[in-house]
Write a structure and sequence with these properties.
With 589 residues, the protein is α+β, with helices and mostly antiparallel strands. The protein folds into four domains: 120 residues, Beta-Lactamase, CATH 3.30.450.20; 88 residues, PAS domain (Beta-Lactamase, 2-Layer Sandwich), CATH 3.30.450.20; 68 residues; 146 residues, Heat Shock Protein 90. Strands 1, 2, 3, 4, 5 and 6 form a six-stranded antiparallel β-sheet that branches. It is flat.
């Protein structure tokens, strides 16, 4: 039977040679034609992209300015000095003390006035009648914005542009202001004052611009109500945009760039939203058409460069892509045959190089997992066997403990019943049908039952506290990892039996990890370091701690397990248990 040659069965060398030859020859004929037909679209997109990048820079600058001013108002709310200034009673302090506090707060605004060219002035007025003015003193009324700010009950209000009049020097300035009611930081609904921060509109515009706009390129800020907040043409500032349809498209369009005809002139529009503002870029189409002729002059150079680059691409493809792939295929066959010493030589940091590096890492991890998987299973079985040393049938033991607990209640011995219930819970956790993983909530209940039993045995000589973050109860943990820690504290950590012996357990989530901190006020780190580092088989406590650490490290990695921390009070012990947060019931797989 005659063999059929299919393209997909060709060698990669042949495929690469044919494809790259085609790519080397076709650009000469295709790029010139395609370039002339699509040069207009290319330039349009280039101008739009450039305009949009500049707009993004302007948006970023504007957003930073807005955020800085809002952060300043937040600082005023939570600053103790500002709080004292707005709430103190003038009759309770001397004028000198008021002046000293005023001078300290004035220095804060002096810094911003000297470092921010767009910063015009600020006014802070407390409920006690004390006022701070820095910058231009405003003569005309701002009552309209003050009333609107009161309605917002502490939320930020950014005003429309408006003129302010000042007497020294006598001038009119176009400003955009932040008005905000300052509420008591101890009572969020109690107003104690008001802050007004005024920004110079003209300086704000120049501060946010990446570069001065071209004559055929406009950039301006638009409010949601269609009012122009800032524009290079100052006659347009504070006026509504003349085309309502344009404003509606800006507000509703999901496309950040579009084409629009305004006053018989075609514009390419790019818009970006910052909080309640829209930054708009408008480029005239005629500007793009004038630039088109310059691009066509470079066509010949592009064609020549294409031929050269095609030849370079053929050679580069063979040595940088094809050769490493062939080597990777050869080493993969070695792994298939069971040879885990196979490695790929990594020559670069590109995708092919990363593929080779990850192949090497994968082979190493597979070999490591083969070795550690069985170790982890053996250690878990050993822990289970130690818990199952008793030959009493678990179900019989549960039933007997349950019967004794109810008998104690019927005989009016609730404390005895509670102790039996705690003991029963510990047995159930230890003899849990071979399960390795339990919910964090179950593990906490188990250690609490253990501590309750110890407290009944020791009385006032022991106290304990357990604090758990809400919402992490379903996290999966290895069972019996907390009881050995508190058991070591009770048996070996405390110097003497006194009412001052305390154990504190704190459980919380930190990013993607669960942290369990166990504190005691016993003998301190000396015993724990000796115990934790002990590998002697006859030191049971050291074995238990190392076993917990090894089980977690084998399951999640060496960065997890037990850590000995420096106690914040320099007395006692602080040991930390760390493992990844997961609610997956199949984590053991």
């Amino acid at each position: 039977m005659k063999k059929k040659w299919k393209v997909q069965d060709w060698s990669m060398k042949w495929k690469a040679a044919i494809i790259l030859l085609i790519l080397g020859l076709l650009p000469i004929a295709s790029i010139s034609a395609l370039f002339f037909y699509q040069s207009n679209n290319i330039l349009q997109q280039q101008v739009i992209d450039t305009s949009y990048r500049n707009l993004n820079v302007a948006s970023s600058n504007f957003e930073k300015i807005i955020q800085d001013i809002e952060d300043m108002s937040e600082y005023i709310i939570y600053s103790d000095e500002f709080y004292e200034f707005m709430t103190l009673s003038p009759g309770d302090v001397t004028q000198g003390e008021i002046n000293g506090l005023d001078n300290s707060l004035q220095a804060f605004f002096t810094f911003h006035l000297s470092n921010k060219s767009y910063f015009n002035s600020v006014k802070i007025e407390g409920r006690n009648g004390l006022v701070i003015n820095k910058g231009d003193i405003v003569l005309n009324s701002e009552e309209k914005w003050a009333n609107e700010s009161k309605k917002r009950q502490g939320s930020v209000l950014w005003t429309d542009p408006y003129h302010i009049e000042s007497d020294y020097p006598v001038k009119q300035t176009e400003v955009i202001s932040l008005f905000r009611v300052i509420n008591n930081k101890h009572n969020a609904i109690e107003p104690i004052g008001e802050v007004r921060i005024r920004l110079k509109e003209e300086e704000l515009f120049h501060q946010m611009m990446y570069e001065d706009p071209h004559a055929d390129h406009e950039v301006f800020i638009l409010r949601e109500n269609g009012l122009i907040l800032s524009h290079e043409d100052k006659d347009m500032v504070g006026e509504p945009f003349p085309d309502d349809t344009f404003v509606s498209i800006i507000q509703q369009s999901s496309d950040p760039a579009f084409q629009y005809i305004l006053n018989d002139e075609t514009y390419y529009i790019a818009a970006d939203k910052v909080d309640d503002f829209y930054l708009v870029s408008m480029v005239k189409e005629r500007f793009i058409l004038n630039e088109l002729s310059e691009i066509r002059k470079t066509t010949q150079n592009i064609i020549i460069a294409t031929v050269i680059l095609s030849l370079i691409a053929i050679v580069g493809f063979i040595f940088t892509i094809l050769k490493p792939i062939i080597e990777l295929t050869r080493e993969t066959k070695r792994v298939e045959s069971g040879d885990f010493s196979a490695r790929v030589k990594v020559r670069s940091q590109d995708e092919i190089g990363l593929l080779g590096a990850r192949f090497n890492k994968m082979v190493t991890q597979v070999q490591h997992l083969i070795e550690t998987k069985y170790k982890l299973e053996i250690q878990n079985k050993e822990s289970e066997l130690r818990a199952l040393q008793s030959h009493v049938n678990p179900h019989f033991l549960y039933n007997m403990l349950d019967m004794i607990r109810w008998s104690a209640r019927l005989e009016n011995a609730p404390e005895t019943g509670k102790s039996i219930e705690d003991l029963s819970r510990i047995f159930r956790t230890s003899l849990s049908s071979g399960k390795i993983w339990v919910n964090l909530e179950e593990e906490i209940k188990n250690v609490k039952s253990y501590l309750e039993l110890q407290k009944r045995r020791l009385g006032v000589a022991l106290s304990f506290y357990i604090v758990t973050e809400v919402g992490i109860e379903k996290a999966r943990v290895m069972k019996l990892i907390l009881q050995p820690l508190v058991e070591n504290s009770i048996k070996h950590g405390f110097i003497r039996r006194s009412s001052e012996n305390r154990i504190y357990i704190r459980v919380y989530r930190s990013e993607a990890n669960i942290i369990i901190d166990v504190f005691d006020n016993g003998k301190g780190m000396k015993y724990w370091r000796k115990t934790f580092s002990s590998t002697s088989a006859n030191q049971q406590s050291g074995f238990a701690l190392n076993n917990i650490n090894d089980r977690i490290a084998h399951a999640f990695g060496k960065q997890y397990g037990l850590s000995l921390m420096d106690h914040p009070k320099k007395q006692g012990t602080w040991i930390r248990l760390q493992f990844p947060y997961t609610e997956d019931e199949n984590v053991s797989e």
